[in-house]
Amino acid sequence: MRVHRMHDGGQAEMDAILVAEHEGPDPFLDRGQVHRDPRRDPRRDPRRDMGPGEVIARGLLAGAVGVAAMTVAEKLEQALTGRPNSYVPAHTLERLLGLPARPDDERLGLNWAMHWGQGIALGAVRAGMARRGIAGPVGSFMFLNLRLINDQTLENATRVGAPPWTWPIDEQVVDLLHKAVYAFATGMAADLLVGRPGRRRARHGARYYRRED
Predict the structure, then answer these.
(1) Residue ranges covered by each domain of the chain
(2) Is the pTM higher than 0.85?
């Protein structure tokens, strides 16, 4: 309870008027500090307010990181094994676009376009997974399967490739290893760029549950 004395010009001092006021903390003030919009807090992780367009854009960037990592791994493997370049991506895109068949040495541009374009585009899917909390090694393992399904669906639907279980074992191993490099590199980048901050998993007994910070 506070006492306020009111004055009116030159008139005599009026009787004190008791004015009841709320003595709790001001909702806008806390020990002299003004409360600001939390979205403008410099300490706030900007990923919290990310829109769909930005998620897709960052996913494409993550996909590019994954393709770059896979390309380096392929070139190192080829230097060790002597395996020649594969032009299956080029001829798959050739069929998809309805282009006439051309020799491998005339399809280098299409080969790179399919190699990079497909991997970059799928990065947006991995970003969407990360945004929904499907992240980490398990999320990347799931994404690896998606990448393999995507490749084999396109290659076999166009009749350029053959079912992977008919390949020699060494070719199966090489393909799985390179696609794993792509999937996990893309996953790490996507989790970093668009992963949902402030979310942890706490263990309770034999089960895990989600806990918001």
Answers:
(1) 50-198
(2) no
